[in-house]
Amino acid sequence: MLGSPYESRIITRVRTFSWGIVDYRMNMQHQANAPRFSSAVAARHTDVEMGISPETVGLLDKMEHRVAIQPDGSGGERIAIGLASGEPLGASDFREHGKAVGY
User: Fold this and answer.
1) CB atoms within 10 A of CB 10
2) Dmax over Cα atoms in the chain, in whole Å?
3) From start to end of the chain, where are the E strands?
4) What is the spatial distance between Cα 26 and Cα 35, in angstroms, rounded to a whole number?
């Protein structure tokens, strides 16, 4: 289960959580800690969190995106059941000061 509270971009955040875990094989905590970005493609505007590499910001700039470096955005907690172990797994996002607990 993935979620993002109080966020106007819930779909974007949950999709990003899924990509990190499924496509890039990141563990849940590594993905939770990773810097994020969001983009309004039609407006060529991209907000990035601190921690996105200067090279990436430069590439976006070359593609004529208006890039704005933002403080940390909102968080989202991750809860899952391990496929191999059947154990509950969780990751807490430092942006929300919460903790994921499984039992």
Assistant:
1) 15
2) 48
3) 37-40, 45-49, 66-70, 78-81, 88-91
4) 13
State the Cα–Cα distance between residues 81 and 71, nearest whole angstrom: 31
Tokens of 99: 């903790």
Task: Find out whether 37 and 52 touch, Cβ atoms under 8 Å.
Answer: yes
pLDDT in tens, 2-13: 666 655 667 777
**CA–CA gap between residue 59 and residue 77 (Å, rounded):** 30
Long-range contacts of 6-10 (CB under 8 A, 24+ apart): 6/74, 7/73, 7/74, 7/76, 9/38
Phi-psi category of 83—alpha, beta or left, where left has phi over 0 and alpha has psi -120 to 50? alpha
- The model scores a pTM over 0.90: no
